[in-house]
Amino acid sequence: MRWKPRLSLQIGLLYTALATINISFFVFMILENQTDLLQSTFKYHSNALIQEVISKQSNLDAQEDREAYYEQIGAVLQQYDIGFATMLDADGQILHSWDGSESAPQTVSDAKREKMSELSGRGLVFRERFLLELNEQDWTADALILLNESGSTEFLDLRIRIAAIEERMDGIRWHIVLAIVWGVLFHVLFGIFVYKMIFRRLGLLQDASAAMERGDLAARARWQERGDELDDLGKSFNSMANTIEEKVSTIESQLTTISRLNLEMQNELDIGRDVQRAFFPDFRAFHDYNPAFVFLPLRDVSGDMCSMFRFSNNEVGVFLGDAAGHGVSGALITALVTSAMDATIQTTREPRDLLESLNAELCGRLTSTFYATGIYVLLGPNRILYTGAGHVDCLLYRKEKRQFVSLESQGTPMGLFADMQYPQLEAEYSPGDRLILFSDGITEARSGSGEFGMDGVRALIESTLHLHGKDLSGAIESSINDYRAVESDDVTVLVLDL
What we know:
By secondary structure, this protein is α+β, with helices and mostly antiparallel strands.
């Protein structure tokens, strides 16, 4: 993840850079102005001293006593802070020395001699009587003064020190230090103020947002209000957080209610599933047919139904139906059909009469949007009678001929037309043949873009001819589950060995 600098860091670095530039600029301006002023002052004081020495010297030229002359010059020099002073003749010989804060040199350098010669020539031409060199490093001035205009030529070589300027330079340095310290302190205090005013509150907003992201819906951004834009932002955030907390609380309450209702509904569905399964026949009573029964409901309760009846003449009636819809709506129709079937079977067992009576009963109770398909088969000795009500065509497998007979459903679904007449058909069978009844859930089972279809049902029956009862049920169920990718309908299969 690419590192991104925080806004406070970016502003802090920019502010530090600008503060450094500002402080450096003002320090430079102070130092430059004060240095120029001190240079001017230094030159002024140096020139003033030299002029005073020259003016004093003009009154001393006539002195015949050299020692008194030197004392008079020394008296003038004592009024100033000198480093040293020497009296030189025209040849550069030292005539007299006065020590100040430094010892006077004992010899005259060649460079000094050249300056003496230069000053003598310039004095004759330009009437200049001194040379002055300023040293700004230690604030001293080396002066060479031509003292005599007539008679013997003498020079006064001296170094002048101006202690006030040195003290002033020290003061400037302290002022620069104080300016830097004050500038840094001011910017630090201003930075702290900006942090408390802006970034501290932004940090509180960020912390509150992060806490809410972690699930702490009670997190709020709180600080002492100042009445500025950040306070408005904080109020908006807290208002939004209150709304979110209220909404989440409401949703949690609703989810709790929904969970409770779902639990109650699931309990009711479990009861409905148990009740619906109680409608299925006790296949142990029909063990002579080796029944194999597969029931794969799409939901807890199903729209498929199955019933078996044994009559007094040892004939067996088998009904397998499929109500419109899935789940609870389909289960309610199956309950209605099953109860109507139980009532009707008491008075008639013939397929035609049974389905017509059942259809009339359902038409009186259901609207056209609710209906049921089904097939009813009456098993007698070596023959079956059957009729279908809009149901998928079921199969009779003849073992000796190794072929399937399609039990076509030629009537309309029950519950649509009260005067519907259902044709009754007949098919013969031999011992060892198989009757296969099923709902359309198996033929419409999909795997990718294909359907299981009737060919799949035939292939499944042929591949399991050696199996009976529970073994056959397990094989059929495994084949269906392995084939279909998505459960889209209830699946019911009943196989009887005839």
